[in-house]
Specification:
The chain is built from 14 helices and 13 strands. It is α/β, with parallel strands linked by helices. The protein folds into 2 domains: about 210 residues, inorganic pyrophosphatase (n-terminal core), CATH 3.90.1640; about 130 residues, Diaminopimelate Epimerase, Chain A, domain 1. A hairpin with a 4-residue loop joins β8 and β9. The two termini are about 30 Å apart.
Length: about 350
């Protein structure tokens, strides 16, 4: 764990500040939940906090308390730039390096005149003046809960904050089934329920939002699934044409990679998604046991994340990306076979 300059930050926050809270590009439940939870908390402390996201996030997260107050850099650039200029401090949540906000927003943030506060659980973070980094944490939302606790303000957690935090912890732990879910995580969840988080409604809002076209897209994805039993690996592909056929919207592919990992005997699951707009293949990696997809993604696909969940990208076309991916697996055969006892 890295806890850097916390006492100085705590002293700085005694006085009212203008604060921006920034999440990563293509924000997920943890990025949105942690950012809005922190906003609600800072507002209650007398600060003026504004959440900025690089781009849109899925519809199934739009119900989260405070969602309508978020500015999007790609659509509300003027508002975002004005908020940054007025601010005296910027929190960076759920990402560990500035390029994770996308090149346009990164260029703006590189000129920021004040200090950054990093709260994040991804590996190998960049260095910032104020840091709370812990790769053992289940989620950034769990870290925001800890941050509020370190500030001595757990009594300020109300229903809105509890709801935001519960959402991020739930989504980033795969509904509490990933290895990063600890007894401490469950104790925090219990406290959030006591403070007003309605767990049944949160699960329903996030998970029971399928449309007909989204289910058809899932069916197409599963029909594209390929299993490589010699390497305990399964992968899914999804082309731009297939996405358009089923009216793909942001968030529709969320969690599909987990179907590959759920197959008996598989310890390495991957999804390759063609992104015509960016001219890349977006890749999500998942693993069980000791096989580090974080290192795999960093080594070969300009990515990273956690030991058992990471992302990456390829600038080759789908066919060449898959060929390259398959050439890598023999190097890791022993690691994959010995990764997990099934």
């Amino acid at each position: 764990m890295i806890l850097k300059q916390f006492d100085e930050l705590k002293s700085f926050l005694i006085k009212q500040q203008q604060i921006v809270i920034i999440g990563h590009k293509n924000p997920d439940g943890d990025a949105v939940g942690s950012s809005l939870a922190l906003k609600h908390y800072l507002d209650k402390k007398g600060h003026r906090a504004q959440v900025l996201m690089p781009n849109e996030y899925p519809d199934f997260l739009h119900w989260i308390p405070g969602s309508r107050t978020v500015y999007r850099f790609d659509r509300q650039n003027n508002q975002c730039v004005k908020s940054l200029k007025k601010s005296t401090l910027a929190f960076l949540l759920d990402f560990n390096t500035l390029h994770r906000v996308g090149s346009d927003m990164q260029n703006t943030l590189s000129k920021y005149e004040h200090d950054f506060v990093l709260i994040d659980h991804h590996q190998q973070p960049d260095d910032f003046k104020y840091m709370y980094s812990d790769t053992a944490m289940s989620s950034t939302c769990q870290m925001v809960y800890n941050f509020i606790d370190m500030m001595g303000d757990l009594d300020l957690i109300d229903k809105n904050i509890a709801t935001c935090l519960y959402t991020g912890i739930m989504t980033d732990t795969g509904s509490f089934r990933f290895r990063s879910t600890t007894s401490r995580t469950h104790r925090i969840i219990a406290d959030l329920i006591d403070k007003g988080a309605e767990n049944d409604k949160i699960h329903s809002n996030v998970n029971d939002s399928n449309t007909h076209s989204r289910l058809l897209l899932l069916g197409q994805s599963l029909s594209n699934l390929e299993i490589l039993p010699d390497y305990k690996t399964a992968f899914i592909t999804l082309s731009e044409q297939e996405k358009k056929k089923f009216s793909h919207e942001k968030g529709d592919t969320e969690g599909i990679v987990n179907y590959a990992l759920s197959i008996k005997g598989v310890v390495f699951g991957v999804i390759f998604i063609e992104d015509e707009e960016q001219g890349i293949i977006k890749i999500s990696f998942r693993s069980k046991g000791k096989f580090s997809v974080n290192q795999f993604a960093r080594n070969y696909f300009d990515g990273g994340g956690h030991d058992n969940a990471a992302g990456g990208r390829s600038e080759m076309n789908m066919e060449d990306t898959l060929k390259f991916f398959k050439t890598l697996l023999p190097k890791y055969k022993n690691d994959l076979i010995n990764s997990y006892e099934i």
